[in-house]
Amino acid sequence: MNPVDEAGAMRAGEELDASRLGAYLAEQFPDLELPVQLQQFPSGFSNLSYLLTAGRRQLVLRRPPVGTRPKSGHDMHREFRVLSALRPAFAQCPQALHYCADESVIGVPFYVVERIRGIILRRDYPPGLEATPALVRAQQTALIDVLATLHEVDYRAVGLSDLGRPDGYVARQVRGWTERYARAQTADAPQAAVVTGWLAANLPPGSRRAALIHNDYKLDNVVFDPREPERLIGVLDWEMATIGDPWMDVGCSLAYWIEAGDAAEMQATRMLPTQLPGSLSRAEFLTRYSQARGIPVADFRFYRVFGLFRLAVITQQIYYRYYHRQTRDARFGALGPMTHVLVRRAEAEAGA
Q1: Phi, psi of 7 (to 5 degrees)
Q2: Considering its fold, how many domains does the chain have in total?
Q3: Is 26 left (phi over 0), alpha (psi -120 to 50) or beta?
Q4: Are residues 328 and 288 in the same domain?
Q5: What pLDDT, on a 0 to 100 scale, did the predictor assign at position 328?
Q6: Which of 310, 309, 327 has its CA nearest to residue 318?
Q7: 92: helix, strand or coil
Q8: Beta carbons of 301 and 349 less than 8 angstroms apart
């Protein structure tokens, strides 16, 4: 079987008008072959991705999710700008082609990029790709090395110095995610005051060198070459990229990193195949990253707790949309219990 990640039918409530979209895109790309065929990529709980097939050409359209959405987290123009500026300095960045602010086309702003066709690792390895220990380890090592490469990009040189404010970044993140959690509360949500209080009281020193950070860097947001599956060829989903503390990026990535020896309730939250034989441990992830950048490993406790809490906020925000019937996607219903597990784990890691 072919392990390449493929799109499928558009989900109910998330359909696009292929005829209207095709007519618009034909004006922007005169050589585009109509009609445009539309499919939707699976997985993902945030911005939506669609495959546009026009003759032999394949494009990817990104748009905000259906339902309530925080403006700063789903700014299509901002994401398009990041891709456009970063591409010359970071080869794994998709090639940005067009941004559309006209909401009359599909109802929301969107942008279009060239498709990076390859393998995406979701909860389990795709059929047709054997998860040998050697391949698992090689792919996870590549994931870390590319993250280190991203953090070495000179964001000033590529014109992204105004993308974020590195001074006070960590404190703002703690405050911001605490406020987001409060706004996403439902009657069945866990209390998180212990974790948020610990984070506010244990901010790391503010002297760390700032970097361009992805802010959602994980295995299902990268693409591997189908011919050389150990080679990472694409990094996707740049909606939360900013300038900040690179260790925050590492902490957020490791919030998804479930090891084979983790407790059963954490195993139940697993979204990615990081528990397989050959997998790096979280400690090995940190060591590899620090070696790739030539910097010492940070005191990581704060970043670990923050990463877990931030993921709890994300799951709760998505569950909030399901709870209030703003989306019909049944996957979102399982995220409420996941929030409870993540908050408990964050409390345990904090020693609170």
Answers
A1: -85, 165
A2: 2
A3: alpha
A4: yes
A5: 73
A6: 327
A7: coil
A8: yes
Mean pLDDT for back-to-back runs of 10 residues, the chain (352 residues): 91 93 96 95 81 96 75 78 97 97 95 97 96 98 98 97 94 97 96 98 84 97 97 96 96 98 96 98 98 92 98 94 82 90 97 78
Q: Looking at the structure, do residues 201 and 71 belong to the same domain, yes or no? A: no
- At residue 107, what is the residue type? G
**Contact criterion met (CB below 8 Å) for 217 and 257:** no
Is residue 196 located within the same domain as residue 276?
yes
33 and 162 in a single domain? The answer is no
| Residue 90 CB coordination number (10 Å) | 17
95 and 163 together in one domain: no
Q: How far is 177 from 154, CA to CA, in rounded Å? A: 27
* 264 and 171 housed in the same domain: yes
246-254 and 133-151 helices cross at what angle (nearest 10)?
150
93 is a domain residue = yes
**Res 70: pLDDT:** 46
Q: Determine how β-strand 57-63 pairs with β-strand 232-235.
A: unpaired
3-state SS assignment for residue 303: helix
User: Helix, strand or coil for residue 96?
Assistant: strand
From CA 40, how far away is CA 48, in angstroms rounded?
A: 8
Kindly state the helix (H) or strand (E) to which residue 306 belongs, with its residue range. Answer: helix 301-323
The predicted structure's pLDDT at residue 46: 73
102 and 196 fall within a common domain: no
For 20, the token pair is: 């209207």
- Pairwise CA distance, residues 202 & 209, whole Å: 19
